[in-house]
Write a structure and sequence with these properties.
- The chain has about 220 residues and is of the alpha/beta class.
- The chain has one domain (about 5-210).
- It has helices at about 25-40, 55-70, 95-100, 155, 190-195, 195-210, and strands at about 5-10, 45, 75-80, 105, 110, 115-120, 135, 145, 185-190.
- The strands form 3 sheets. The protein has a 5-stranded parallel sheet, sandwiched between helices. A two-stranded antiparallel sheet has the order 4-5.
- Strand 1, helix 1 (about 25-40) and strand 2 (about 45) form a beta-alpha-beta unit.
- Helix 2 packs across helix 3 (about 95-100).
- Pfam families: ThsB_TIR (PF08937).
- This is Thoeris protein ThsB TIR-like domain-containing protein.
- It comes from Bathymodiolus thermophilus thioautotrophic gill symbiont.
Amino acid sequence: MGKKVFVSYKHSDSSVQSLTGYCNNTVRDYVDYLINNTLKNDVYKGEGDEDLSDFKDGTIENHLKDKIHDSSITIVLISPNMKDLYKSESDQWIPWEISYSLKEIKRSDKTSHTNGVLAVVLPDMHGNYDYFIEEGTCSVCNSGTIKIDILFQILRKNMFNAKVLNRSNCSDCDSYTEGKRSYIEYVEWCDFIDDKDYYLNRTVIIRDDRWSYAITKEVQ
């Protein structure tokens, strides 16, 4: 049986690489690809791209409960312009979708559990990932740099948030060794579609060990 997957993304972001056979030239093409291929055997829960600025908190809450309550994994598609810098984060969909994915929400006689959350980084218009992941920035240990400033705060706070983090012995950078690091891990699109089951299963393992992480659930 497939996993129940909800996908959070910026529908109109066109700063991503075009996908052959798809015509929107936006992040929506990647969602369509997932539905048609990678998530074909998984239950896909719908998304929205509406403007929250005129909504009341109760409307937002009910709308997101309807969409996310029955899912178990949330995939967040990271794209170069996913965040509108001219709007408050509380007026954008993605932070709220992540927040409700992380909360345990009671609805009628059923309480939803905290979702596992995976950040899938999409390639930019030139097919590169360096707007978010810069490889080999440390000359000593060859570790990379994650440019978390492009992310919403609720995403940033749930990365490198293990209660026990193992720092490397590198004298030149502040990197971490393998082990528990982030409740929301990230993976490049090309790697995700090559081995989707591995990354979804890993997300479930992290979710089931969620008490090992200091999880932030509120939109700031």
